[in-house]
Design goal:
16% of the residues lie in helices and 33% in strands. It is an alpha+beta fold. The chain binds manganese (II) ion. Manganese (II) ion (MN) binds next to loops.
Length: 233
């Protein structure tokens, strides 16, 4: 194969206890999936159908216990953290029944859906796509993936992020409005899921801004924590 221009790199994430890497395909993100976060965004947390937006594969940044850095992105003055449980698709499929959805999950990790909140809210209020608020390079630091074969499925447990040691977001993944299985089933009605797809399951309340120099520590009970420093461009 001769490419006319250099092909895009394959972005991969580490897998705990394995030398293999997880190749990132598409990243689907669930919007407003905790009631208290829906309220803080000025929306009714009634169980409306889930909705999704996407990030490019080059949003991923390998994070972990050791500190990694992400750049403060251009064109924002309100760069927000959203701590999330991340699920990884190992087996593809369409129209997946809820009862079988977890069979498609390869593993889980801790992630941050970093957001240019000012751009996102302006787009939202004008009825425009959220793209520039959500979908940009290095906007998704994600920790090592814990395999379902090793840790099973996660349905409850603390989820939190601190900034410079101070609590910012703290909730429990049992408060997800749409569970991982329900999100996979619903999404697979619209789009055939493929191995390598990633689902960021949504963030609890307490989203807030970070500035260059800030250090975020994100945790989900049972998974490896991540430490991410924001640095000036
Ligand atoms: Mn999010």
């Amino acid at each position: 194969m001769n490419y006319a221009v250099p092909p895009a790199a394959v972005h991969t994430l580490a897998i705990a206890g394995s030398e293999e890497r997880f190749p990132v395909n598409r990243i689907f993100c669930v919007g407003r999936n905790y009631a208290a976060h829906a309220r803080e965004m000025g929306r009714d947390p009634d169980r409306e159908k889930p909705f999704f937006f996407m990030k490019p594969a080059n949003a991923t940044v390998q994070a972990g216990a050791g500190e990694v850095t992400i750049p403060y992105p251009p064109k924002t003055a309100n760069f927000h953290h959203e701590i999330e449980l991340v699920a990884f698709i190992g087996k593809g499929g369409a129209n997946i029944p809820v009862e079988q959805a977890l069979e498609h999950v390869y593993g889980y990790a801790v992630g941050l859906d970093m957001t240019r909140r000012d751009i996102q809210l302006e787009a939202r209020d004008k009825g425009r796509p959220w793209e520039f608020g959500k979908s940009f390079a290095q906007s998704a630091p994600i920790g090592p993936i814990a395999r379902v074969d090793d840790v099973g499925h996660l349905s409850e447990g603390a989820i939190s992020v601190t900034v410079n040691g101070a609590p910012r977001q703290h909730s429990d993944i049992s408060k997800l409005i749409w569970s991982v299985a329900e999100s996979i089933a619903y999404l697979s009605e619209y789009e055939t899921l493929e191995p390598g797809d990633v689902i960021m399951t949504g963030t609890p309340e307490g989203v807030n801004a970070v500035v260059p120099g800030d250090v975020m520590v994100g945790e989900v009970a049972g998974l490896a924590p991540i430490t991410v420093r924001v640095v000036g461009a």
